[in-house]
Write a structure and sequence with these properties.
Elements: E1 2-8, H1 12-20, E2 26-32, H2 34-38, H3 47-62, E3 68-71, H4 74-79, E4 91-93, H5 96-102, E5 108-113, H6 119-132, E6 138-143, H7 147-152, H8 156-173, E7 179-181, H9 187-197, E8 201-202, H10 208-216
Parallel strand pairs: 1-2, 1-3, 3-4, 5-6, 5-7, 7-8
Length: 221
Amino acid sequence: MKKLGCFHAHHSNIEHIEASLRNMDIELLHFVDPGLDARKNDQSFTVSDIQKKIEATLNWIASTGVDGILITCTFFTAYLNEEKLGISIPIIKIDTPLFHKICEKETPQTLVFTNPETVKGTMNQLDMFADRHQKKINITPILIEGAFELVMKGEKEEYKRIVEERLENLLSEGRDTPLSVAQLSMAPLAQHVEKKTGIYINTPLKLLQIQIREALNCPSI
């Protein structure tokens, strides 16, 4: 059985990954580093420091014998310097399947965030991804203010209420504009709003199984 190491910034992401990949014949090993995300506002903690810490952690995870690594935090993926990584196993970024979906359209789209520290980095990564695949995109980032702090404090119900309410408002304001959510913690909430409204919402989880299956050459059950 293939082993997938999952690198999280918060333990709450574990349940989302476990639920999304439950029908795949793989073993999931979870590694959580909330301290790295918590230091993002520390002025003495430079971009270079962040990249070195991420690189060191990925190398350590790779040394545990996993067949691939899934990075579930967009803060980590935004600062990942892949050119410096000397890891031979596949590195799967949570936002790659979402980027593929976004790049299917040239018409205006909206990408919703809850973590303010990931907006700039993720948008830069998305622009580079689109350029690399020769795609033109027209996408507007929107931040749900104050929501991410609720996740980090464990206030799940208030986070759920705020995010779902904002997503419903965005859908009603622009029903013809495709909507995507950036953070993994938003995926189940987006799914609930999608069922309630009947309007499709892109999430990082919808194409994740395909991405992992291709990376690990591992079929579903």
